[in-house]
From TrEMBL:
Presence of keyword Cytoplasm: yes
InterPro entries recorded: CEP70 (IPR037692)
Keywords assigned: Coiled coil, Cytoplasm, Cytoskeleton, TPR repeat
MF terms (GO), sorted A to Z: gamma-tubulin binding
Protein name: Centrosomal protein of 70 kDa
Cellular localization per UniProt: Cytoplasm, Cytoskeleton, Microtubule organizing center, Centrosome
């Protein structure tokens, strides 16, 4: 690997300042193989936790951290168990928070798109309703105009009929006078 392309980290603890020293009686009572097994299990758990963190890092597009064993320590930063645990917890929390924020951003984008779609739909409906209102107004104006024409025609007919009646009455009177 080229220099700077990977972050190197030594999570395998080299000192454990948080442990209390064992009393001479307790240290004699412990079986060396039990202690060795317990240390091996702790080491495997710590490595598994770092691998889990690496998975989260890669999921978010970051480069994984390298677990270094038995190397020259001059080129590395070494953490004790407590610092290593804190670092893993911080990285895990950071990745979880990043995931939560990305999820929130995706939801906001989806909601925004949905609102834009709904707005477009409502604008289309409003334009349709406005056009319909304009069409109805034109129909109403046309009907009013037609009613006005029909009223005028009707008044003309009534006037013509009244004039005709008057003419007929005059004729009738003239005919009565003659006969």
């Amino acid at each position: 690997m080229t220099e700077g392309s990977q972050i190197f980290l030594l999570p395998i603890s080299t000192s454990d300042s948080t442990k209390e020293p064992l009393s001479p009686v307790a240290s004699k009572a412990q079986d060396p193989s039990l202690l060795s097994n317990r240390l091996m299990i702790e080491k495997q758990q710590e490595e598994a936790e770092w691998e889990s963190i690496n998975g989260l890092l890669m999921t978010h597009g970051f480069k994984p951290l390298c677990l270094v064993k038995g190397a020259d320590l001059r080129d590395f930063i070494v953490f004790d168990k407590q610092s290593s645990q804190k670092m893993r917890q911080i990285l895990k929390t950071l990745m979880e928070e990043t995931t939560r924020q990305q999820s929130m951003i995706r939801e906001l984008i989806e909601t925004n798109q949905q609102l834009k779609s709904e707005l477009q739909l409502e604008q289309n409906r409003a334009a349709h309703q406005e056009q319909r209102a304009n069409d109805l107004q034109q129909i109403m104006d046309s009907v009013k105009s037609k009613i006005g024409e029909l009223e005028d025609e009707s008044l003309n007919r009534v006037c013509q009929q009244q004039n005709r009646i008057k003419d007929l009455q005059k004729e009738y009177k003239m005919l009565q006078v003659l006969y």
